[in-house]
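Justification of computing resources. Each target in the renewal requires a structure prediction run like the one illustrated here; the chain below, 67 residues long, is used simply to show the kind of job we budget for.
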Amino acid sequence: MRDTGDSVVCEVDRVERDEAGFTVTLVRPSPVPFTGLLPTGPTRTVLRVDGQRVEVSVVRPYFGSTG
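Resulting structure tokens:
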């Protein structure tokens, strides 16, 4: 990872016997054009995982980075 000065916030959403769900948020100290963070365009994308519908957000956390 490249150090960009961003902060990382991790929140536990749920904990079960054999799995856990959490949300990781990268907080940038200065504003970034929102569209620059969405490589696929929409804010949410629907994926199928094990036959179930899963809604995700595909983001590029390091604006301006190509890798």
